[in-house]
Amino acid sequence: MTDITQNGASYDASQIQVLEGLEAVRKRPGMYIGSTSESGLHHLVYEIVDNAIDEALAGFCDDITVKIGEGNIITVIDNGRGIPVDIQEQTGSSALEVVFTVLHAGGKFGGGGYKVSGGLHGVGASVVNALAEWLEVDVHRDGKIHQMKFSRGDITQPITVIGETDRTGTTVRFRPDDELFDTVVYNYETIQTRMKEQAYLNAGLRIRTIDEREGQAQSEEMYFEGGIRQFVQDINKNKTGLHEEIIHMAVEQETSMAEVALQYNDGYSELILSFANNIRTIEGGMHETGFKGALTRVLNNYAKKVGLLKGEEKLTGEDCREGLTVILSVRLTEAQFEGQTKSKLGNSEIKTLVEQLVGDKLDTFLEENPAVGRAILDKAVMASRAREAAKKARESIRRKNALEGATLPGKLADCNERDPALTEIYIVEGDSAGGSAKGGRDSRFQAILPLWGKMLNVEKARVDKIYGNEKLTPVITALGAGIGEEFDLDKLRYHKVIIMADADVDGSHIRTLLLTFFFRYMRPLVEKGHVYAAQPPLYKLVRGKTIRYAYSDAERDRISEEIRGGDPKIKIDISRNKGLGEMDPHELWETTMDPENRILNRIEIADAVKADEIFTVLMGEKVEPRKEYIERNAQFVQNLDV
Ligand code: TSJ
Q1: Which of 99, 273, 299, 571 shows a CA-CA span of 20 to 30 A to 636?
Q2: Is 178 a catalytic residue?
């Protein structure tokens, strides 16, 4: 952390340092905001908003507005105390100026305690200022409106009083520098999703998002009195809870705090969303480790006590988390973020804190709510039995494989290449489509696995059923990386896993079932971008010897225009595509499998919460939400790019 006040630097000297600092940000923006792509662009907004949330955590602000205006100008308004504008003796400049011109100074001065949101990579408003074509700040404080302006980090207007006011607060407006970013077009939904998450994490804070751009005007107001309890409730809204009330636990210390909300549902997947200083910790870390350990310990002790476990029997962590939705939020002064994407919390003291919290409070809760305790335990014990059954099924498959000497499924047409980085597998529904694909493929690097038999809806089944399923077992063995906790991406036999299904309702169904399976049992496969959907053409256009294919209605119209060449009388034969099985091998290769011509859609999981919701709704028990969802998102369901 750069602190220009520390060595009592003179005003001039500190100014020089300031210039160097922000120049560095403009030279290598990626170092400070991760990237200059869309994600970096959005981080500018979060960085500013984080400062307002700090003010809310300090107890002085309960209302934040985030606005996308015409020209992608961002405005963030809070009703806090207003950034101090008086000249500080040590620096000779105001806090306001320091915040925007000194690297890493944002949010730290005058603060204290653990009540700080993290800010991206610990950088502050000055980074945003450096990367903005222009930035303006209005501070409502002491009855006056103080204004300061900047351009690309340089002061263009020193603090000026521009009027009077009867409120307090800070308003920041800026336009991202289009010389530095790949795109400067903001996505309302991206910002709204993030702000909703922040509203859940900060109970009682009202956050408004507004898009004022022409043609896409929309707005939302988010306020959750129940905080993360409501977060869990909303995630589980389409699921059937095992207990009515969300279990909530919280503990506060001098320099840290931990808060947990959880609810079990009758499904089989677990969803843990953890946060440190309001930042999502995708890779988990010490807080998650503490939670999981304590949960497993408490449930095992409780099960022993009520006589549900005998002798050496034990519930594993996975058993205890079946059907569990958890929000885990911690705050601490010196958060250490580790891991590949700096999203893993490294502070070991937090593990102890969360362990103690869950150890004490969950135990007490179960004692006081024996019916809930019983329902949770019954589920965990069932999970444990299913796990044992799955283990036996797995071992029997291994034995069978050993006896037969062939580990790969019989219907797999494998490729010659052995380097997984160079190979791809097409998973194809039906033997006739499988036949065409085998005939059309390039066998050097393309493997074909036709699927047959009855598909299992994994959303309604436990892991032991998966191993027994005739349709899924070949997929598991062909990919070679296992499933569930045992899944090992390093063992993956093909780096591209391509689902090839018809462009109709049945095709969409099988695609969704397979994606659900991958999402629930091979999540890293999806997260690391190995799963693709092939896109067969929708139309075939024939005129004389010319044959063309179109992948959308618009393309059909464009191509027919093109081959018509301005002559409206020329006849073109346009046929709707018949389905994969009826294409001949050559056609299938040309339109759907040839890397030179094909369209591959990579399946991306932008947001685990959204993906979970989609799969729950599409595959779960409740009919009404499914109908509603499909009506609302007909187009989306067809393509299901989560
Ligand atoms: F930093 C910033 F420009 F990015 C920014 C800061 C942006 C926005 C939208 C809000 C804020 C901000 C900062 N809101 N509220 C504050 N509060 C302070 O800076 C503040 C006010 C008073 C005192 C005090 O001790 O009197 C201390 C602080 C840190």
Answers
A1: 273
A2: no
